[in-house]
Amino acid sequence: MYPSSAGDLQESGTRQPDFALLTKREAEVMALLASGQPNRALARQLGISERTVRAHITSLTRKLGIPTRIEAALLAFQYQDTLTAH
């Protein structure tokens, strides 16, 4: 369960993460996480270093209260439409 400040309550009783907390680049990285590609591939797509991708992932997981990259990828897949509209 996400902290109450993390987003809006959904019908299922869980909270949608507050993607407004993310920078545009963090939202881009998170949206790409849904593809399941490794950081190196994400870095190539974005034209940035793999280290920078890792930094973005660390930042977005911290901001959203998500403990792992895998959970971030699952959320990104679940909320793809919301992320791409960010």
Which descriptors apply to this entry?
86 residues; mainly alpha; 5 helices; 0% strand; disordered N terminus
What does this entry look like structurally?
The chain has 86 residues and is mainly alpha-helical. The chain is 57% helix and 0% strand. It contains 5 helices and no strands. The chain is globular, with a radius of gyration of 12 Å.
What is the secondary structure topology, with strand pairs?
Elements: H1 24-33, H2 39-46, H3 50-64, H4 69-78, H5 80-85
Helix pairs in contact: 1-3, 1-4, 2-3
From the spread of the alpha carbons, the general shape counts as: globular
Oligomer: single chain
Give the averaged pLDDT, no decimals.
86
Rg for CA atoms: 12 Å
Portion in beta strands:
under 5%
SSE string: HHHHH
DSSP E strands, number: 0
Give a nutshell description of this structure.
The chain has helices at residues 24-33, 39-46, 50-64, 69-78, 80-85. The protein is mainly α.
